C-alpha cells in the first residue's frame, strides 16, 4: 500500500498547517490529556455497560469533571489561537468534502491517505470524535450538576444519561478507528508519534 503525498495545493491555512508540520507544544499536551482521560472514561464505562464490571466506576465522576475542564481548555485554545482555528477549519469546513471523497477513493484503491492536520478522511474522523466526546462529556457534566442539586435544568439528567449510555459504544468505535489508523500510518513510516513528544517543539 503506497502513501499518498498531498496532491492538491490547498489554501493558505492548509499550506501553513502542512509546512509547520509539527504540532505546537500546547497542542501535544492537550492531546495527551485527552488520550488519558477519554481512554479511561470510555473503557471504564464500557466495562460497566457491557460486562457489569464496576471496579473502577467510583472514579467515573472525578475523571468526568477533569475531562470537562480539559475539554473547555481544548476548545479555548482551538478557538483562541491561529493554529487552533486552522485545526478546527481542517476538521469542520464543509467544503472539504472533495478531499474526504479523494481519500476514500484512494483507500479503496489500496493507497493510504496522508495523515496529520490537513483536510481529508483522517481529519473528519478526528473532528467527529472530538465533537462526540465534547457532547457526551458536557451533557454528562450537566446531568451530574442536576443530580447533585447544584443547578435545576429540567431534562438535563435525561439527556445526559442517554447521551452517555448511547454515546459510549459510538465513541469506542471512533476511538478504535482513530488508534488503529494511527498505528497503521506509523507502520507505513509516517512520523506520527511526534504528537506525543511534548518536550520537543515551540
Ligand atoms: C466521555 C465521557 C463519558 C462517558 C463515555 C460516560 C459514560 C457513562 C455511562 C455508560 C454511564 C452509565 C449510564 C447508565 O447506566 O444509564 C454513565 C453514568 C454516569 N455518568 Fe458518565 N460518562 C462520561 C462523562 C461523564 C461526566 C463528564 C460526568 C460528570 C462529571 C459523568 C457523570 C455520570 C453520572 C453521575 C452517572 C450516573 C451514575 C449512576 O447511575 O450512579 N459522566 N456515564
Question: What are the salient characteristics of this protein?
Answer:
Fumarate Reductase Cytochrome B subunit; membrane; mainly alpha; transmembrane helix; transmembrane; Cytochrome b561 bacterial/Ni-hydrogenase domain-containing protein; binds protoporphyrin IX containing FE
Main beta sheet: 2 strands, parallel
Mean pLDDT: 89
Q: Termini separation (Å)?
A: 33 Å
Rg over C-alpha atoms, rounded to the nearest angstrom: 18 Å
CATH homologous superfamily identity: Transmembrane di-heme cytochromes, Chain C
CATH topology: Fumarate Reductase Cytochrome B subunit
Helical stretch tally: 7
**Count of β-strands:** 2
Shape: globular
Q: Extract low-pLDDT stretches.
A: 1-10
Helix content: 55-70%
Reading off the top of the CATH hierarchy, the class is best stated as Mainly Alpha
- Walk across the major sheet and give the strand order: 1-2
**Which structural category do the helix and sheet elements fall into?**
mainly alpha
Task: Give an account of the 3D structure.
This protein is an all-alpha fold. The chain has one domain: Fumarate Reductase Cytochrome B subunit (Up-down Bundle). It is 69% helix and 2% strand. The chain has 7 helices and 2 strands. The protein has helices spanning 12-20, 25-51, 60-80, 82-92, 97-108, 121-147, 156-187; strands at 2-3, 111-112. The chain has a two-stranded parallel sheet with strand order 1-2. It is globular and about 50 Å long. The chain starts with a strand and ends in a 15-residue tail after the last helix. The structure holds protoporphyrin IX containing FE (HEM). The site of protoporphyrin IX containing FE has 24 residues, from helix 2, helix 3, helix 6 and helix 7. Protoporphyrin IX containing FE (HEM) binds at residues 38, 41-42, 45, 49, 60-61, 64-65, 67-68, 133, 136-137, 140-141, 144, 147, 161, 164-165, 167-168, 171.
Amino acid at each position: 500500500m503506497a502513501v499518498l503525498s498531498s496532491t492538491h495545493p490547498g489554501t493558505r491555512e492548509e499550506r501553513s498547517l502542512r509546512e509547520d508540520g509539527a504540532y505546537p507544544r500546547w497542542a501535544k499536551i492537550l492531546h495527551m490529556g485527552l488520550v488519558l482521560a477519554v481512554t479511561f472514561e470510555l473503557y471504564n464505562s464500557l466495562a460497566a455497560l457491557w460486562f457489569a464490571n464496576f471496579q473502577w466506576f467510583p472514579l467515573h465522576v472525578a475523571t468526568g469533571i477533569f475531562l470537562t475542564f480539559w475539554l473547555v481548555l481544548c476548545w479555548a485554545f482551538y478557538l483562541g489561537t491561529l493554529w487552533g482555528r486552522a485545526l478546527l477549519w481542517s476538521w469542520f469546513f464543509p467544503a472539504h468534502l472533495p478531499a474526504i471523497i479523494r481519500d476514500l477513493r484512494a483507500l479503496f484503491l489500496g493507497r493510504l491517505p496522508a495523515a496529520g492536520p490537513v483536510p481529508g478522511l483522517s481529519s473528519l474522523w478526528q473532528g467527529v470524535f472530538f465533537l462526540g466526546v465534547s457532547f457526551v462529556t458536557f451533557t454528562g457534566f450537566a446531568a451530574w450538576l442536576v443530580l447533585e442539586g447544584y443547578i435545576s435544568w429540567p431534562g438535563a439528567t435525561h439527556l445526559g444519561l442517554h447521551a452517555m449510555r448511547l454515546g459510549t459504544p459510538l465513541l469506542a468505535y471512533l476511538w478504535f478507528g482513530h488508534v488503529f489508523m494511527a498505528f497503521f500510518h506509523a507502520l507505513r513510516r509516517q512520523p506520527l508519534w511526534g504528537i506525543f513528544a511534548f518536550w520537543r517543539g515551540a
